[in-house]
Write a structure and sequence with these properties.
This protein has 14 helices and 14 strands. It has 435 residues and is an alpha+beta fold. Strands 1, 2, 9, 10 and 14 form a 5-stranded mixed beta sheet that branches. The longest helix has 35 residues.
Length: 435
């Protein structure tokens, strides 16, 4: 059992490493593009950042290479994986480094999920204790089912809820002018129209999965900042305000907000931090109004080109060739008229290991401290003997010892509808030095 877990963790860590490498390279490209196009409209730059976020959910490799019950190309014999783990050496099973690393990865991810649950509970309690806010400007058209409340425990305006959207204002909102309320509510409604609550949920998922990658944390900061700026532009255009006036309103709102003792961080809400507010003010003051909304055809071409870089990785999941397929089967051509369709039925009786031969630890490998496992694929004949072997996972210093041992194994024959049949089985052979 421990060997199976260690094998899974080793393969999973290999997959995670390739994903981390691919995603890191893609995020570096995103960073370069955001730097090059830093003077372009926020909607365009936001699109680039969102493509980087989406790429984190596209696996770049075919998947785990765990042994599975499938048919190898060109061989009309079914394949079965049996529990025939052979261990060489004593000293007991230890938790290997891959298992330890996967455990740490899962534990930190669980901590993030626990933090999410705690924040969601705290936010719900604050909402139920908040007072309804009735001073809504008439010029702001809220959806009929949307509620707006005010709470002294909220340090800044925020929206939360994935399907039922709600707006929670800080206690300072009772003293805001009508213009300040219009600007804040228009900004929060822009978040809802642009689906930023769903984007926030995706960001939390990336932090759970890729908490170890600093580029992912950087990307999430960029996405949050660009979402805020994009909504500022949309709100300002909705209110028909010039950038200087809107920036002045942001300054006035910021002066009424107090720095919180704790911060609500949850995918169920989308709030504004004071540091983000400062950047938003500077953007409104230092950026020309035409540059905020100017959209050119080549912007769309760039987004499409970046998006196409993600697609080949997704297609490789289904198009990747099987490395275990024999070369002869790939080169041999069969005429359609002579081809025979073979349909495999589930075995009525799977092979059972009757005799196991313990491999001898090669002396040179023992002296060099070489450990690991060799994965052997064996063809079990109708009489239960091993007729052929192949190596699925190789350690050159240990291969011969593993194959020689597996060739002496004896099995009970597999049966299909009462008749003995040949079947491939996979046998992991583990070599472990004594402590």
């Amino acid at each position: 059992m421990m060997f199976t877990i260690q094998h899974f963790c080793r393969e999973f860590l290999h997959l995670l490493g390739w994903m981390n490498l691919y995603h890191s390279l893609f995020l570096v490209l995103v960073a370069v593009l955001l730097r090059v196009f830093r003077r372009q409209p926020p909607a365009f730059r936001r699109g680039i950042a969102l493509l980087g976020l989406i790429s984190l959910f596209v696996p770049p490799v075919p998947g785990l290479s765990l042994p599975s019950s499938k048919t190898f190309a060109g061989i009309g014999i079914p394949v079965e994986t049996i529990e025939a783990v052979v261990s060489v050496g004593s000293g007991g099973e230890k938790i290997g480094l891959p298992t330890l690393l996967v455990g740490i990865w899962g534990a930190v991810g669980a901590i993030f999920l626990l933090r999410l649950w705690q924040q969601a509970r705290r936010l719900r309690r604050i909402w139920y204790l908040a007072q309804p806010f009735g001073n809504i400007p008439r010029t702001i058209a809220l959806p009929p089912a949307m509620e707006v409340r005010c709470s002294p425990f909220s340090h800044s305006p925020l929206i939360f809820g994935l399907w039922r959207h709600r707006i929670l204002l800080p206690g300072a909102a009772v003293g805001w002018s009508e213009q300040q309320l219009r600007s804040v509510l228009a900004h929060e409604l822009s978040h809802i129209r642009h689906g930023d609550h769903w984007i926030s949920l995706l960001q939390w998922c990336t932090q759970v999965l890729y908490w170890y990658n600093p580029l992912v944390w950087w990307l999430n900061r960029q996405v949050r900042t660009l979402n805020e700026i994009y909504c500022d532009v949309a709100a300002r255009e909705l209110l028909a305000q010039p950038p200087v006036q809107y920036a002045q309103t942001l300054v006035e709102v910021a002066e009424t907000l107090s720095r919180p003792q704790w911060k609500l961080v949850s995918p169920l809400c989308f709030s504004t931090s004071l540091s983000s507010l400062k950047y938003r003010i500077l953007y409104q003051l230092n950026t020309e109004e035409s540059a905020m909304r100017r959209w050119k055809p080549w912007h769309l071409l760039v987004l499409v080109a970046v998006g196409l870089l993600i697609l080949p990785q997704a297609c490789s999941l289904s198009d990747a060739p099987d490395k275990n397929a024999p070369v002869a089967a790939e080169k041999q051509a069969i005429e359609p008229s002579k081809a025979e369709v073979v349909e495999f039925e589930p075995l009525t009786k799977k092979p059972q290991l009757l005799k196991m031969v313990q491999p001898e630890y090669p002396s040179q490998a023992r002296e060099k401290g070489i450990e690991g496992y060799v994965l052997v694929k064996a063809l079990v004949g109708v009489d239960g003997t091993v007729e052929a072997t192949e190596l699925l996972k190789s350690i050159p210093e240990l291969d011969m010892a593993a194959v020689q041992a597996v060739e002496q194994f004896r099995f009970s024959p597999a049966e299909l509808n009462g008749e003995p049949v040949k079947v491939w089985v996979t046998v992991p052979v583990q070599f472990k030095l004594k402590e």
